[in-house]
Every structure is written in C-alpha cells, then in structure tokens.
Design a protein that fits this description.
about 290 residues; mainly alpha; Rhopdopsin 7-helix transmembrane proteins
C-alpha cells in the first residue's frame, strides 16, 4: 500500500473515532439565526408606538414609516454541524480510496479532484461553526461566507486540474495560476469577514471573548492558510517559471515522489485541522449556558 493510502486510511478511521466521540461527549447547542429587513407601516399605525426610530417616507399611497426589523428565522445545531463535519470526512476519505484511478491520478497526474469536493463541504461546515461561536448570527452573512468558501475549493480544484502532469501546454498553467489567485481572494474575503467581525465585537464589548473563541479563530486561520500554501508549493513544483524567479530549478527529478508527498501532506493537515476545530467546538457545546431572562 502506498504511503498516502496508508495515511488516508488512518485519517479516515480517526475521523470516525472523532464522530463517535462527538456523540458521546458533545452537548446540543442551538444557535438562532436572524434576518434584517426594512418594514413599512402607515405613520398612523406606527406613531402610537414610536419607541423605534424610523424614516419618514411620503409616496402616492400616503406617508409611511420605514424602519429596520431583526427577526429570528432559522436555527443551527452546533452539535449536528460538527457530527456531520467529522462523519462526512470519514465517508469521503475512506470511500475516495476505492474510486477508479485513485492511485494513478495522484501518482501520475498529481490530481485528486475528489479531495477538493470533500473540502468544499467540510471547509464550509468548518467556517459556519467558526462563525457561530464567534457571534455571527446573520443568515445573509453566513450564506455569503459559505458561498465564498465553496468557491475557494472550486478554484483550487480547477487550478490543480490545470497543472495536471499530463498537460504539457504552458497555457494551462497560466489559467491554473489565475484560478489559484482567485482562490486566495475568495478565501481571504470569507475568513476576513469573520476576523473583521471579531475585532469589531472586541472593540465594542465590555468584556473580551473567551480564550477558546480566540483560539478557534486564529488557529484555523493559520491552518486554512497552510492549505493555500500547500497548493502554492504544489503548483511551483510543476512550473519551471517559479525556479526562474527564485534561482532554484523547479523542474522535478521525481514527479511521482513529489505528488505522493503533497497528497500525504494534504491528508495530515486536513486531519489535524478538523480535529483541532472539532474538539474546540465540542468543548464549546459542553460549556454553553442556558438562556438568561432579565
């Protein structure tokens, strides 16, 4: 069995162990999501209860009060998010090894599209979990981050395909670099919103966020960037132009070895990232207090 196959099998069953541990240890913690909209009311109906600040708007149908309303519309279970997160990681990593051409695609082409499909789900679930524990409750906010995260994985998959070892035309590498750059933009925008929200919250809250929230935000930020730099290294190994800039020849004397090394690193970093996040989230569910009524 190849080294990356062994690492993949071990990681898959460790993800299964994390899934089982989630059901044993974690508590249910539901987060209510909100949507904000502009409500229009007749001024006659609005003014008797004028504690809310509104804009006065006069149209052909009369005069209206327009004001912002925040409404709870959905709820997400942190418990089930993290359970699905670990469970799907097991299914994808274990099942992926049985796909036709799994070994040859990695060794001879340096391509594993199924890995990027799995990331498009797991990384998105990871980001939603981080958003919830960092205090983000807006449906639109979370939806936008999820789409950007999904797009990041799609750009990553496309970049990897454009650097397929069987493609010899340099034009494909140019397209691949463009896709890779777009992935940095979408991931930076997605995670940047979490960081911006975190700093805004810290600046306007009387008490700083708990240590585990800070640990989640910054540790996953580092681990997310490691994925990006892993692909950057992967692409540079396949592009002689990288060597011309650095003075080091990027032409590989053993492409198969490099492809296996990169795939193994993806597997290890994926497991470490998901395990760190998963247990930080599980710790959060066990500490979640009941709602306070004042």
């Amino acid at each position: 069995m190849c080294s990356f196959q062994t690492a993949n099998t071990i990681a898959a069953f460790l993800h299964l162990a994390n899934t089982v541990a989630t059901f044993i240890v974690a508590d249910h913690a539901d987060y209510e999501l909100t949507q904000t909209y502009a409500s229009w009311e007749s001024v006659d109906e609005f003014c008797p209860n004028n504690e809310t600040i509104a804009w006065n708007f006069t149209g052909s149908n009369g005069t209206f009060a327009v004001y912002d309303v925040e409404k709870t519309t959905y709820s997400l279970s942190l418990f089930w998010l993290i359970a699905w997160f670990h469970g799907l990681s097991f299914v994808f990593q274990f099942g992926g090894s049985f796909l036709p051409n799994y070994i040859s695609d990695i060794e001879q082409r340096g391509v594993n599209t199924f890995r990027m499909v799995e990331y498009s789900i797991s990384a998105t679930l990871m980001l939603v979990c981080i958003a919830l524990v960092s205090g983000i409750r807006s449906v639109y906010f979370i939806s936008g981050m999820s789409v950007l995260c999904f797009a990041t994985q799609a750009f990553g998959a496309f970049a990897e395909l454009m650097f397929d070892d069987l493609l010899t035309d340099p034009y494909f590498k140019k397209i691949g670099w463009a896709a890779h750059a777009c992935g940095w933009i979408t991931m930076g925008s997605s995670y940047g919103m979490i960081i911006a929200h975190f700093f805004f919250t810290q600046a306007n809250s009387p008490v700083n966020a708990p240590d585990f929230v800070v640990a989640i935000i910054w540790s996953i930020a580092v681990l997310f960037n490691i994925f990006g730099f892993t692909q950057l290294t992967q692409l540079c190994l396949k592009d002689p132009c990288c060597g011309s800039f650095s003075g080091y020849s990027a032409m590989r004397d053993n492409p198969k070895r490099d492809n296996i090394t990169v795939e193994t690193f993806y597997i290890v970093n994926s497991f470490v990232s998901k395990t760190i996040l998963g247990w930080l989230i599980i710790a959060n569910t066990t500490m979640s207090p009941d709602k306070i009524k004042c």
